[in-house]
Design goal:
The protein is an alpha/beta fold and 268 residues long. It contains eleven helices and twelve strands.
């Protein structure tokens, strides 16, 4: 698998997954290195606000390169597998909003990639599957991400059955956030979501993503107390106060941008 991200000067970075030397969109060492480097660049960029991950029509991502894994059978492959785990952790923990556009098949690690995103938009022909149990494995690196998105029982059954979950069912169990008919509607849905995300304060997006992970293991009372502390801190920031005052008088915040296809988000 290879990655292409042509424009990095706008607030929206569109990342395309492309077939590698074997003609498949599957995770290999080079592809994971590219993804990890790109995620680091995005987090360090003051311009980037949203990452959009997409692929070729018909196939989103087939997961790990099984041919490569079999070719190296008997070797310790911990580092190769950790590279995927670290990429997914970096993606899930990114300070930027992440959207996955899916128009086709997502399998194994490709399901994990989708689950790590903040927003998943899929076409009606998309299918999600975890074939690991059929191979004598378990989707051990995918389940932590899936269980943030859907009930644990649903994630477990998806893994046990190894069956393809169609887009409509994926929507009902939380793996997909928005379902559309085809590629044209996929792009339209992307624009709607970018319009919403480019209204949100970049620092607030980063805090929200971090905060949602922090409160996940907490009890209700502890989480509510932490929420009070967080909001009190937020209200000490001059930028936040200015945005609230502007909202009350009908003005747009300084971070508001309009999405322009081909040019990221620019202008008010």
């Amino acid at each position: 698998m290879r990655l292409r991200c042509d424009a990095r000067d706008g607030s929206v970075w569109r990342v395309r997954l492309e077939p590698g030397s074997k003609g498949e969109v599957a995770f290999d060492g080079a592809g994971l290195e590219q993804l990890d480097r790109l995620l680091q660049d995005a987090d360090e960029s003051r311009r980037c606000r949203v990452l959009v991950i997409e692929s070729n029509p018909g196939v989103f991502c087939k997961g790990m390169d099984l041919e490569f894994l079999v070719a190296h059978a008997g070797e310790d492959q911990s580092e190769k597998l950790l590279a995927y785990a670290r990429c997914m952790d970096r993606l899930r923990g990114s300070s930027k909003a992440v959207i996955c556009l899916i128009d086709g098949e997502a399998m194994g690690g490709g399901v994990g990639l989708a689950a790590a995103a903040d927003v998943v938009i899929a076409t009606s022909r998309s299918v999600f599957a975890l074939p690991e149990c059929v191979l004598g494995l378990i989707p051990a690196m995918v389940l932590p991400l899936l269980c943030e998105r859907m009930p644990v029982q649903k994630a477990r059954w998806m893994a046990l059955s190894s069956r393809g979950v169609k887009a409509e069912e994926a929507l009902s169990i939380g793996l997909v956030d928005e379902l559309v008919e085809g590629p044209i509607q996929l792009e339209q849905a992307l624009r709607r979501n970018l319009k919403r995300l480019l209204r949100a304060g970049p620092r607030a997006v980063a805090r929200l993503k971090r905060y949602s992970s922090e409160i996940a293991p907490m009890g209700r009372s502890e989480a509510l107390e932490l929420g009070a502390e967080q909001t009190a801190k937020d209200l000490l920031e001059l930028e936040t106060i200015a945005a609230i005052r502007g909202f009350m008088s009908g003005e747009s915040p300084v971070w508001f941008e309009r999405y322009r296809p081909g040019g990221g988000g620019r202008g008010k």
